[in-house]
Design a protein that fits this description.
about 425 residues, 13 helices, globular, single chain, four-stranded antiparallel sheet, alpha+beta, 2 domains
């Protein structure tokens, strides 16, 4: 499963921990300025990885365990994937030397582009530039044309076909005739991709597959999922202001007659199979849940990240048309300097609470994401937390998995 991720994860950790084999004149590792994940720093970094678990939705596969404690205990490829593509760019930005961190971010940014199902030509060109710069920078920063370090440049640095091999290999569920099986998977994938391009209106999931008991089908692959209130509940003044603002801009009618009450729904099934939950649902849960109420919203060409307070719908009196809505507490725009420096791999924003409430059409939600507190590993083994500051983590391989039509289970239910 995801062999390129596994190979890259092992390569980076071997280098940054200084556990890579050394030979000849390079036997003394004191010259390895990238050997920073050692001692208490390595322990505190592992703690930050483990502390992130609560903030990673259950739909993101298995969350990474404390990498400092579990790296030699069967650390899985999906754990490496979340660590490399999600957590490491932010958690290591003050630990790695700046040049090595920027080089790593180029790799992450390039791979994220290539893992998309729909890529513009300019994005492909940009990914090529990023990965070529990563390879060149990797050899200059680590290998340094030193024959004793030739083993640093493993095949995984250059063999991009491993990504395709890994993605296809995980689809094979039988060890009988594996090569013939793999060939059929390639044919199926090519056919599916061609159909998606020619007929984008085709849905790979059947209506029966997305149906849930007592759900409210909203169309286009969206549906509200219980629990839900049986009677209307009053909303706060700030929530009422946000709802009225949306209604005045998007819905015709006399909204002054609105009773300032709503009937709340707990969850929303997305077309990509993910389940978005709400603060109203998660704070009422008797279980220790992995937060799944953070979402990415795309509305009129703008991208927003926010925390879902609750879902509800508004029905027009005359036309009986239903507007599926959600009350969202938006995060601030990201730190633009850090976003640019990290090649858009570190999206760092402030949680704004009640002061940034806004209502969106629920169908504008693109995906469930994680917003992880800005944990800072310290050299003495402690961890600092910057209050109110969070970084964005999106699910690795999410867009590729959308093609399978697989519905993700809400394991907390």
């Amino acid at each position: 499963m995801h062999w390129p991720t596994l190979n890259k994860g092992q390569l980076f950790t071997d280098l940054w921990r200084g556990t890579m084999k050394s030979y000849g004149a390079d036997k003394d590792r004191s010259s390895w300025i990238w050997r920073v994940l050692t001692g208490k720093t390595w322990e505190s970094h592992g703690t930050t990885v483990a502390m992130s678990t609560t903030y990673i939705p259950s739909s993101f596969d298995r969350p990474p365990r404390n990498i400092a404690q579990k790296i030699n205990s069967g650390y899985k490829a999906c754990e490496y994937a979340l660590w490399i593509y999600g957590l490491a760019p932010a958690l290591l930005r003050d630990i790695l030397p700046r040049a090595h961190w920027i080089n790593f971010c180029k790799y992450v940014a390039g791979m994220k582009i290539l893992l998309s199902t729909s890529i513009k030509r300019e994005d492909v060109d940009h990914a090529e530039v990023l990965l070529c710069e990563f390879v060149k920078g990797f050899e200059e920063l680590y290998y340094q044309r030193n024959a004793d370090r030739l083993h640093f440049v493993r095949q995984t640095i250059h063999w991009t076909t491993e990504t395709l091999i890994g993605n296809t290999g995980e689809e094979i569920h039988s060890d009988k005739d594996p090569y013939s099986n793999a060939s059929q998977r390639y044919i199926l994938r090519a056919t599916t991709n061609a159909l998606n391009v020619m007929y984008p209106q085709i849905k790979l999931t059947t209506p029966e597959a997305t149906r849930t008991t007592n759900s409210f089908d909203l169309g286009d692959g969206f549906s509200f999922i219980p629990r839900h209130e049986l009677t209307s509940t009053p909303v706060s003044d700030l929530e009422a202001q946000a709802i009225l603002s949306y209604l005045h801009e998007n819905v015709e009618g006399n909204h002054d007659r609105w009773s300032r009450t709503v009937t709340r729904w707990a969850k929303l099934r997305l077309p990509n199979g993910q389940m978005a939950r709400s603060t109203w649902h998660e704070e009422r849960s008797n279980q220790k849940v992995r937060i799944a109420r953070m979402v990415k919203i795309i509305d009129q060409g703008e991208t927003y990240v926010g925390e879902i307070r609750y879902f509800f719908y508004f029905r027009e009196e005359v036309t009986n048309h239903v507007h599926p809505l959600c009350v969202v507490s938006l995060f601030s725009p990201p730190d633009q300097e850090l976003l640019k420096l990290s090649e858009h791999t570190v999206y760092l924003a402030q949680h704004q609470g009640d002061q940034a409430l806004r209502v969106f059409n629920a169908k504008k939600i693109d995906s469930v994401v994680a917003m992880v507190p800005d944990f800072r590993a310290q050299s003495d083994g402690s961890v600092d937390v910057i209050d109110g500051q969070y970084f964005l983590v999106e699910k690795p391989y999410k867009k590729l998995r959308t093609l399978s039509g697989e519905l993700e289970e809400d394991s907390n239910d």
